[in-house]
Amino acid sequence: MRITLDALQVVESIARCGTFALAGKELHKAPSSLSYVVQKLESDLGITVFDRSAHRVRLTLAGEVLLDEGRRLLRAANDLEERVRRAEAGWEAELKIATDALVPFDAILPFISAFQAENSYTRLLFSQELPGNNWLALATNSVDLLIGAVGDPPAVQGLFTVPAGTARSIFVVAPGHPLAAVEEPIDCTVLWQHQFVEVWLPQDSAPDPLHTLVEGQRHISVPTLDAKVSVLLSGLACGYLPVCAAQPHIDKGRLVVRRLGEERPPQTFHIAWRSNDPGRAIGWWIERKEALANALRQSLGLQAPA
């Protein structure tokens, strides 16, 4: 290879300092040594890197292209060196974290900031999971950490969980929906006549099918919580929402709460991970599991676990 990182470092220093002498002081090398490196590079590439006609050297057009791309290579090399050192010290190259669709990302931002202040070289890869799919992602090692996993943990070896709290879901409809005016508690035979909406992302390995309120009930399955709220606000369907998601629309009169004969039990939110011998990156988050749980309780209005 004709272009070396050492040569690029020399060119970068000379271009920034303006003279071979100043660059030599910065690199602790004799100016003649730097001149040899540049001349060899120019000879190997068949180009002129510096215009030496003035007291302060200037990059030629070819030199500017070389330095522009060279700086990227130098940054990448420095980054690689740091990542290798971090890996040797036990820091993972990347950490995959999934959050439930209900979890406000603002609740996690202080943790991201604190983590990166201590270790900015582990890449944090965030994804959003839907109820039913979040445990599957952890069980199949698609993610390293779950924040706000909903429901009962599966029987998977090496799975660790911390309950953050419980949230109640309420049955809501738009004010103009027919169910807004019927007698309570609403009977199953009445519910069956109306379309139901639920968040559900079908997957080949999904653990559970979509559950409607009444067997055989017409339903719409949507991919996100926001889509579900939109369907409910439109009056196209009825359905359940967590209190934290429904309350703003109830307060503004866009949704009304209706009572059924049998209500859904509260759901528990968890912090969960799968590692018997965690690296330092996921270990950092595990050490703060109680703080994460508290952040979820505050942002989602969860009831603290018993």
Describe the structure.
This is Regulatory protein, LysR:LysR, substrate-binding protein. Belongs to the LysR transcriptional regulatory family. Pfam families: HTH_1 (PF00126), LysR_substrate (PF03466). InterPro entries: LysR_HTH_N (IPR000847), LysR_subst-bd (IPR005119), WH-like_DNA-bd_sf (IPR036388), WH_DNA-bd_sf (IPR036390). This protein folds into 3 domains: 84 residues, Arc Repressor Mutant, subunit A; 93 residues, D-Maltodextrin-Binding Protein, domain 2, CATH 3.40.190; 89 residues, D-Maltodextrin-Binding Protein, domain 2 (3-Layer(aba) Sandwich). The termini are far apart. The chain is elongated. Helix 1 packs across helix 4. With 306 residues, the protein is of the alpha/beta class. The chain has a 5-stranded mixed β-sheet. Strands 10-7-11 form a 3-stranded antiparallel β-sheet, covered by helices on one side. The protein has 11 helices and 12 strands.
- Order the strands across the largest sheet as they lie in space: 4-3-5-12-6
Q: Count of DSSP E strands? A: 12
Q: How many domains make up the coordinates? A: 3
> What is the rounded Rg?
30 Å
| Oligomer type | single chain
Cα-to-Cα separation, first versus last residue: 65 Å
Q: What would you call the structural class?
A: alpha/beta
CATH architecture annotation name of the largest domain: 3-Layer(aba) Sandwich
CATH hierarchy, class of the largest domain: Alpha Beta
Largest sheet: 5 strands, mixed
Mean pLDDT: 88
Report the portion of residues in β strands: 15-25%
Order of helices and strands: HHHEEHEHEHEEEHEEHEHEEHH
Report the uncertain regions.
204-210
Total number of helices = 11
